[in-house]
């Protein structure tokens, strides 16, 4: 009986040792698995640093439709939002001197019409309506004095409105500041399809600085840690820690100096678990090159 228990104990011990050995082998296999990363190619060229200027869209022009004399609106031919042509009949007002026929002085869209047919109207109550021109639209913005040198009448710049990019042309740069100490600037933007509405925020991108003949990397590839700035360059399936010096940086791209060459694959995703010399597996993600 004693011999039986000794044999059973030996079998249990051997099984436990085998299981431990298997676990160690499994752990070693897990440790040896390469880290999955996404990369982008380093590029050489000029990095243009852009300054964001914010404004709002307004009608390119507004023309008030006014009355000559007070009277009753006997005929009203338009509504807000109607498109009219030059000389188109808008309304008829019966005055003490007779009927006044009101025609459009220019083409555009009717806006701010509050009068109703049969109601009384007078010049003192303000314009009967306005005719607004929404093509082109005007972007009104104000800038500080140090930004004036970046802007010139006739210059064109990309502008983002509701996540869509357009082209805007500077039409006016004030030489005197307003009451806030800022300088009013106007830019025109084509709106032939009518997709841009008035009162919308517009982000004008103006070149402020240019770093010439530099190495350009995705900003997300840059790591700053313990006073060091570096990237991981993938060489022979290993992540090689490479120190760099930042020249200029934007949200998406950064100009750097360092031992990074054009075409090098730099890690942009999977950085948190990396260390120098670690084996990596490059997987396909969004094309960032």
Characterise the protein shown here:
The protein is mainly β and 289 residues long. It folds into 3 domains: 35-47 and 213-282, conserved putative lor/sdh protein from methanococcus maripaludis s2 fold; 50-58 and 135-210, Efflux pump adaptor protein, beta barrel domain (Elongation Factor Tu (Ef-tu), domain 3, Beta Barrel); 67-126, OB fold (Dihydrolipoamide Acetyltransferase, E2P), CATH 2.40.50.100. The protein has one helix at 2-31; strands at residues 35-41, 43-65, 71-76, 83-84, 89-95, 98-103, 108-111, 120-121, 129-143, 156-161, 164-173, 183-189, 201-218, 223-225, 228-235, 238-249, 253-258, 265-269, 280-282. β15 (228-235) and β16 (238-249) form a beta hairpin. The longest helix is centred in the first third of the chain and has 30 residues, at 2-31. The chain is elongated.
What is the radius of gyration?
Answer: 35 Å
Q: Biggest sheet: strands side by side, in what order? A: 2-9-12-11-10-13
CATH superfamily of the largest domain: Efflux pump adaptor protein, beta barrel domain
Taking the sheet with the most strands, its summary is: 6 strands, antiparallel, barrel
- DSSP strand (E) fraction? over 45%
Number of strands: 19
Helix content percent band? 10-25%
Work out the oligomeric state of the chains in this entry. Answer: single chain
Please give the CATH class of the largest domain: Mainly Beta
H/E element sequence: HEEEEEEEEEEEEEEEEEEE
- Unreliable stretches: none
CATH architecture of the largest domain: Beta Barrel
Could you say which structural class the secondary elements and strand pairing correspond to?
mainly beta
CATH topology of the largest domain: Elongation Factor Tu (Ef-tu), domain 3
Number of helices: 1
Span of the ends, CA to CA: 74 Å
């Amino acid at each position: 009986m004693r011999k039986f228990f000794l044999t059973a104990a030996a079998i249990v011990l051997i099984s436990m040792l085998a299981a431990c050995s298997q676990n160690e082998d499994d752990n070693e296999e897990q440790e040896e698995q390469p880290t999955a990363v996404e990369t982008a190619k380093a590029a050489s060229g000029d990095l243009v640093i852009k300054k964001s200027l914010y404004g709002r869209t307004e009608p390119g022009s507004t023309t008030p439709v006014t009355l000559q004399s007070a009277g009753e609106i006997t005929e009203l031919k338009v509504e807000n939002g109607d498109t009219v042509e030059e000389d188109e009949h808008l309304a008829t007002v019966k005055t003490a001197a007779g009927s006044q026929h009101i025609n459009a002085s220019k083409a555009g869209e009717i806006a701010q019409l509050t009068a109703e047919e049969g109601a009384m109207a007078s010049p003192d109550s303000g314009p009967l309506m306005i005719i607004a021109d929404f093509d082109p639209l005007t972007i009104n913005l104000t800038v500080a004095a140090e930004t004036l040198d970046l802007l010139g009448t006739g210059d064109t710049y990309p502008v983002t409105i509701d996540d869509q990019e357009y082209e805007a042309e500077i039409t006016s740069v004030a030489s005197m500041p307003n009451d806030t100490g800022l300088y009013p600037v106007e830019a025109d933007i084509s709106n032939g399809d009518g997709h841009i509405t008035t009162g919308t925020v517009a982000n004008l991108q103006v070149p402020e600085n240019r770093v010439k003949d530099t190495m350009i990397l995705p900003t997300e590839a840059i790591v700053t840690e313990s006073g060091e700035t570096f990237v991981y360059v993938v060489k022979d399936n290993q992540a090689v820690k490479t120190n760099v010096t930042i020249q200029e940086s934007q949200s998406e791209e950064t100009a750097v100096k360092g031992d990074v060459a054009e075409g090098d694959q730099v890690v942009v995703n999977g950085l948190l678990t990396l260390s120098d010399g670690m084996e990596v597996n490059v997987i396909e993600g969004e094309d960032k090159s």
